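thread from #wetlab-drylab

HS: before we spend reagent money on co-crystallization trials with adenosine-5'-triphosphate, can we at least see a predicted complex? here's what I'd submit
DV: go for it
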Amino acid sequence: MNANVNTEPHQKQKIPRMKKNSEETNERFVYKDDDAIEKPFNWTQLTRLISYMKPYAKQILPLIGLMMVIGTITKLAIPFLTSLAIDRAIEPKNGNPSLTLLYQITIAVLVMYIIQWVAGIFRIKFTNIIGQRVIYDLRADLFRHIQRLSFNFFDKRPAGSVLVRVTNDVNSLQDLFTNGVVNLIIDCVQLVGIVVILLLINWKLGLAVIVTVPIMFFISTKLRVRIRRAWQDVRIRNSRINSHLNESIQGIRVTQAYTQEEENMKFFDNMNMDSKKSWDRASAMNQGFGPLIEITGGFGSLILFWLGATLIQQGELTIGLLIAFTQYVGNFWEPINRLGQMYNQLLVAMASSERIFEFIDEKPSIDDQPGAKKLPTIKGDIKLENVVFEYEKGRQALKGIDLDVKAGQSIALVGHTGSGKSTIINLLSRFYDITDGKLTIDGYDIQSVTVESLRNQIGIVLQDTFIFSGTIRENIRFGRLDATNEEIEEVAKAVGAHEFIVQMPGGYETEVEERGNMLSMGQRQLLSFARALLADPRILILDEATASIDTETELKITGSLESAASGQNLLHCGASFINNSACRSYRCA
Ligand SMILES: Nc1ncnc2c1ncn2[C@@H]1O[C@H](COP(=O)(O)OP(=O)(O)OP(=O)(O)O)[C@@H](O)[C@H]1O
């Protein structure tokens, strides 16, 4: 159980509590579906999960089955051999004790232990292989699918919530696949085997033990469920701390600029305290209930010895058989206990898999329509006719826009903040579909062509450029993966990025961290320009792309873009309508 939490965070410094209700405060870091710890058992979902094992079933499952059978037989044989040792070799009813027989039985027991151990090793090895492959496939499926989902999906969800599903939720299924499913089968087989043996040895004693099963099962599941929920609660609170930490570190510059460190500390302290309290609760429950679970097994043994002794006195049972019986009963509680745990594990898996399948089942709202054709190489005539668009139902971001851009034209969209300039750009690339009206490129309705063939011909440079971790060269190459080094340097020169790149310690091979923090905003934009030029799109869209670039460089870029874009469209979208950089370089539309 994960108890990796600092339990004494408040001893040195007294920090004032926030007045706000802590639950309310922490809600900021939880997506509404993400804090469901468990969900009711759902057979369809379980079969869907198990279907991930299908590709490996033929190869690996028979091997696992074989190891299971060997392990179970050897395990069940040991108590039987022990009873033979006592009743036949140590204290036989008829005749003298036989040391030779005792040696033989001891060696047989040893061999059984060794076989059981080896079978166990291989079984774990094979189950791990299958478990890891299933988790790999599930994670890959989820990631592949998430990459295809449309912008409006991400508009609705915090990035952290998406991240948690690919990491935590997939990981929480790991146990189910590596141990759970196989253990479930082993335990069921073992239980049936033991019940049969117990009844065969002595049906009265067997029945007495079996009657206690439901009580034990109930106690073990119910108590465990409470302990596990308490630890899950700790986990949730810890992941809220992580989310807050993430946000605090990302926003540290703003926090320090506005001297909000103390306020931020209070907020953090509130969460930290929450985590500490939940840890205290879980820990207390563990200490209180844990031993209780252990002694439930003792209760069964009590009945066994009392009734067993009576039966021996009545001559219905031998000492050897009673000892074998005790061992079987020991083996009996183990699977029952594990089945209780397994049931809990299954409920957690239900919650995780529901969240995972919710994403996998989410259809991208922007996808190729049936019969969509590839958009041929376009000239670049763009036409918007009475286009209406709503991000959310009932709230129009664009109200009947008409726009006619001829191929080869460079135009600038100018308008107030929030007037819908970026929205038009989003619609052109089909990041969203228009709500009403008509949007065509070269006369093709953009919804009638494949998304890939459309986006391949449109290049976008945003103000908030995204630089991936990797080298500068790799970042530019993102525009066209098969570009040569010469082509990359050529576009870098064209946009005026070459000069600063060669001055970097590693030149084009300099590693830039995620989001390009070591580069200035303007340098990041230059890389982004180079990337877009390399892609050689038929329509180039600049969304406030020159906002962070000095005038001289901007003129250089626009010059090279115009020569590179001769015969292509250049759409420039500026933020403000007076001091708009777009107006300096382009005719304002
Ligand atoms: N993802 C979104 N979900 C919901 N509403 C949005 C979304 N993006 C933009 N909007 C809304 O749509 C309207 C137009 O936004 P848009 O980003 O197109 O404006 P803009 O003209 O590009 O503004 P700016 O010059 O500030 O970049 C705004 O009212 C904005 O609140």
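DV: The domain at 39-361 is CATH 1.20.1560.10 (ABC transporter transmembrane region fold).
HS: ok that's useful, forwarding to the group
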